[in-house]
Amino acid sequence: MIGTPLLGALEGGGTKMVCAVGYVGGAILKRKSIPTTTPEETLPKLARFFQGEGVEALGIGSFGPVDLREDSDTYGYITSTPKPGWADMPFMPVLRDALNVPVGFETDVNLAAIGEYTLGAGRGLANVVYVTVGTGIGAGIIIDNKPLHGLVHSEMGHLLLKPSADETHPDGFCPYHKGCLEGLASGPAIEKRWGEKAGALPPDHPAWVLEAEYLAQCCANIIVAISPERIILGGGVMHQTHLFEPIRRRTLDLLGGYIRSDKILDDIDHYIVPPGLGDDSGTIGGLILASRQLQR
Ligand code: ADP
Ligand code: ZN
Question: Residue 26 has what pLDDT?
Answer without folding.
Answer: 81
